[in-house]
Amino acid sequence: MDDTARALQRYKELVDDWDALVDVSRRPLPLVVWQNPLRRTHVERLAVGVGLDRGATVGDLLATRGYEVEPLAWRKGAWRVRGVDKPGRTLEHYLGLMHVQEEVSLAPSEVLAAKAGEAVLDFCAAPGGKTACIAVGMRNTGTVVANDLRPQRLRPLRSNCERLGILNVVITPINGMRFPLDAGPFDRMLLDVPCSCEGNLRDSRPSTRRVRHSQVEGRGGLQATLLGRAWKLLRPGGVMVYSTCTFAPEENELVLDYALGEDAVIEPFEIAGLRHDPGVTRWAGKDLRADCANLARYWPHHNNTGGFTIARIRKVAANG
Q: Model confidence over 203-244: pLDDT tens digits?
């Protein structure tokens, strides 16, 4: 049994086709890019320059170079691209017309659905792909506070904001466990917590191929602490998206069950075209809150992506 199968074996009873999960987890991820709507005028100019019409997309531009381009079924303005060895060296990337991001990691910002003019906190933001999705979705209005503990991890976030023309992001290097409560309240919040990264097994870096059970068990306390702090910063009626790139209930449902109180509701959601399995309400002999079933677990073999787990949580107002 190789490292991939060993890392996934504990989920054999949760998944519909364990062999398919192991098989796809041994293969590299498809390359995915999304078009930056803030650079629409630049896309038009470049399109006209290569003989395309003004309504052309970044996908059309890449196709003129001979790259194989396939639109994502579930997200407008994003494509799987084959034949590009170094997408960061393309003109479209350099000019900020597009951003490279793993497909399923686009889902949290879709679920968060931040609106123009809102105050949003991305609590563990680095390296910043999700921050960028949120900010451009808000059309450069409102405020997105992008926070992360380690300043060096915020450098690519700052660089990407500049490249993409994002103006509504404020970057803060604060320990999330001590994030100042008077900075809130926020309308929406993304809490993409540090995790054991089981969902990144398809990453080509050798360091992601081995996940120890101790890593899974050792994260829950930190995740629950961050969730408790972040919850205090969310306004009544506001929405938090809690997400991890891991499958472990110890880092997902068990954290939510432990940290959330009666003022929280885990809401159901669907992303048309992106399949997910429900969360568990019992694990390791422990019964969990019933609405943990509304958590979404994205297995790699269902959508040919990495793995991800997402919960959409609403803070119930004091009057119910």
A: 755 444 455 554 555 567 999 999 999 999 999 999 999 999
Nearest to 211 by CA among 17, 12, 23, 9: 9
Q: Are residues 66 and 184 in the same domain?
A: no
> Across residues 52-68, what is the average pLDDT?
96
Per-residue confidence (pLDDT) for residue 4, from 0 to 100? 87
User: Tokens standing for 17?
Assistant: 């086709």
pLDDT at site 266: 98
User: With bands split at pLDDT 50, 70 and 90, how would you rate the model's confidence at 7?
Assistant: confident
Percent of the chain with pLDDT over 70: 94
Question: Structure tokens of 242?
Answer: 């809690």
* Boundary (domain end) residue, out of 79, 101, 123: 101
Catalytic amino acids? Answer: 245
Nearest by Cα to 121 from 112, 71, 13, 129? 112
Are 138 and 168 a contacting pair, CB within 8 Å?
yes
Split into its structural domains, the chain has a count of 2
Both tokens assigned to 103: 């497909």
Tell me how far apart the terminal alpha carbons of the chain are, to the nearest angstrom. Answer: 51
**Do 186 and 235 form a contact (C-beta atoms < 8 A)?**
yes
| pTM of the full structure | 0.94
Check whether residue 20 and residue 49 sit in a common domain. Answer: no
| pLDDT at residue 247, as a whole number | 95
Asked if residue 83 is part of any domain, the answer here is yes
Q: Which of 191, 14, 30 is nearest to 111 (CA)?
A: 191
The CATH number of whichever domain residue 149 belongs to comes to 3.40.50.150
